Amino acid sequence: MTLRPRLFGWRCGAYLLVLAVLTWVAIHQLTQPLWDEPEIVLEMGGTYEYLHRNSSAPFSPQIRGHIWSGIPMTDARLRFVDPQFGFTTPAARFFSVGFDDNVIYSIRMSPQIEPLLIDDALKVVLDLQDQWRAKGWVAKGVRDDPTIADTPEWREWLRQGILSGRSYWQAGDKYQAMLILGRFEDYRNPTEERYLITLALAKPWTPFEEIEEMYDEPSHFPAPQPK
Questions:
Q1: Any idea which of 19-23, 99-103, 154-158, 167-171 has the lowest mean pLDDT?
Q2: Residue whose C-alpha is closest to residue 42's, from 86, 90, 11
Q3: Cβ proximity of 198 and 112 under 8 Å
Q4: 77-80 vs 39-42, strand pairing mode
Q5: What is the mean pLDDT of the chain?
Q6: Neighbour count for residue 122 (Cβ, 10 Å)
Q7: Percent of the chain at pLDDT above 70?
Q8: Is the dihedral of CA 86, 87, 91, 92 positive or negative?
Q9: Beta strand 87-88 with 77-80: parallel, antiparallel or unpaired?
Q10: What are the TM regions of this chain, as residue ranges (predicted)?
Q11: Between residues 54 and 213, which one has the greater pLDDT?
């Protein structure tokens, strides 16, 4: 009489255990892209130790006492840390961080895994510009280099493959960013129009106000201007 209740209890417990395992596996599969996406977390003027401690992507070994460049050891996105001006990028295959001994002073990257079609490339560029605008970054040098936009004029200008789109952004007196979008000949997709994005970030290096006061003549090859 006591065997059947015990057997039923054992089977019920086993079923519940299997259900719990299957539930955990399902949740893990749904959330794994968020958990496992490699990320480099850094701040300008921060240290190699901070980057190494807070990043989920492996990074090249430190070289002390030199000006050197380090790279993630896998495709990784950037999370730029600043209480006001922080932002994130998509995953990048080309991603270089400049160090002066132990201290970060520059970033240069292409926030994409491969050359992109124009729709996808513009989506990345516009998202970065929107993040900066929302965080208080200010577009600079717009007389010659207006912010990149998704318009027929911009698409036609980029499609020619002669000149790249370029915009400059500045965060107070702390950071300056240069964003470039240009046509790229992708040997793997020779019949498609592919585009490459370049992002450079450092302390302000171009004094735009001084330059615009010195030179009044516009560029001979102006990018499409906002209407």
A1: 19-23
A2: 86
A3: no
A4: parallel
A5: 85
A6: 22
A7: 78
A8: negative
A9: antiparallel
A10: 7-27
A11: 54
